[in-house]
Amino acid sequence: MDAETILGLRPALTAYLRTFDDCMGRQSNCRHRDRYVEGQLSDLERKSIEPMADLAGVHPRTLQEFLSLLVWDEPAMRDRLQQRVASRHAHPNSVGVIDETSYVKKGVKTAGVQRQHCGAVGKKENCVVSVHLGYVAGDFHALLDGAPYLPEKTWLEDRERCRLAGIPDDVGFRTKPQIALGQVRRALNNGVRFRFLTFDEFYGCNVPFLRELEGLGQTYVAEIPVSFWGWSRRPDLVYQAHARDGLPANEKRRKPRVKVAQARVGQVRDLLKYSPRWRKVPWERFQVKAGAKGPMVYEAKRVPFWLRGQDGLPCGPYQVIVVRPVLAPNEVKFFLSNAPQSTSLEVLLLVAIGVPNRNQSAVGVAFSRWHIERMFEDSKGEIGLDHFEVRRYRSICRHLILSCVSLLFLSEVVAASQADPKKKRS
């Protein structure tokens, strides 16, 4: 936003930021927060601390200390943001999106930095990675949470390195799915409700993660890899001892196992090709988007599936949604869902492939994973999510939460302008 636009929106921005005042501890912290958010919403080319401080007419050290040293409650700010989304933007067809983004960084002192896959450049690079939970309700979207990922071997096993980067001793290793699960739990506790969660195959292949979501009562549509294991029909279980168990013939087996005759488990790509039960399910055709090059037409089918749990036993039933573009039938994708059988294939398809639906008879809203990519683009391009130059762990966490606060205001401004086209806002 340029200076004139921010000036016109100042009353709305002031009222918005006042709702977070009780998270800040002191009035001086509120002023620092206002300067930080205004800097993120400005038209500065680089939205790191020094140019934002120059814009506000304060010494850069004041904003550096605001992120790293001053006492204020960033978890409470995150909770307040989520409660605002829950109360003002609730939608019966809302979708939560889990994804991660990365930030190229030089050196070895920034908390969490290491050479790893960096989505920002599409290859291995020295970078920091953060995990995020996004919220989509129709055309409205917002980031609800964000946290840096801390690698175990290069960081958390080196406690001296952690102390130099300000990582507390009580911060233990968490996998990316564990970070995401904590974010989902917090959002649910703050009143946010998702009709569906969706995420890519990195999270979808993690069976404990899926089972934890089910324990929360959460419905999901998860992309899964072509090598995901399971059964096309539920195999029978037996409790009798088997010769290969090494148990005496008169001793009963206490734990169940899959019946040997039905023990064969398959990958979803092979089930699609060879399973008679899957092959006889007809493809259904859907036109899901009218793009610049014409309509995008997909074929999809829904088939029953029992996944193989950590104990080797079947879990289910689930639904696997198999999707392929009509013009590229070899580009097959698989999605796993625990949605009720009554959920239409069109709804599951829209959540799975994530493109706007022009025929809105089924769901009335368009959902997608592409929304979180748009959120990352907006956050990096509009508010400088990737412009941070701080190194300490607490500063990065606070920057991520403040970025969520700035993006929510931007999303609400856009939603208001769409609701009232006479308002010229950017």
What topology does this entry show?
Blueprint: H1 3-18, H2 27-41, H3 49-56, H4 60-68, H5 74-88, E1 95-104, E2 114-118, E3 123-137, E4 140-148, H6 152-156, H7 159-164, H8 176-189, E5 196-199, H9 201-204, H10 207-215, E6 220-224, E7 229-231, E8 237-238, E9 257-258, E10 266-267, H11 268-274, H12 276-279, E11 284-291, E12 294-308, E13 314-325, E14 333-337, H13 345-353, H14 370-382, H15 393-419
Parallel strand pairs: 1-5, 5-6
Antiparallel strand pairs: 1-3, 2-3, 3-4, 6-14, 7-10, 7-12, 8-9, 11-12, 12-13, 13-14
Helix pairs in contact: 1-2, 2-3, 2-15, 3-4, 5-15
Q: Which ranges are low-confidence, i.e. pLDDT below 50, for 5 or more consecutive residues? A: 355-367
Would you tell me the overall average pLDDT?
88
Portion of residues in beta strands equals 15-25%
Through-space gap between termini: 7 Å
Count of spatially separate domains: 2
Rg on CA atoms, Å? 24 Å
Structural class comes to: alpha+beta
- What's the number of extended β-strand segments? 14
Description:
It is a single chain. The protein has 426 residues and is α+β, with helices and mostly antiparallel strands. It folds into 2 domains: 3-200 and 371-419, no CATH class; 220-361, no CATH class. It is 38% helix and 23% strand. Strands 1, 2, 3, 4, 5, 6, 7, 10, 11, 12, 13 and 14 form a 12-stranded mixed beta sheet that branches. Strands 8-9 form a two-stranded antiparallel ribbon. A hairpin with a 2-residue loop joins strand 11 and strand 12 (294-308). It is globular.
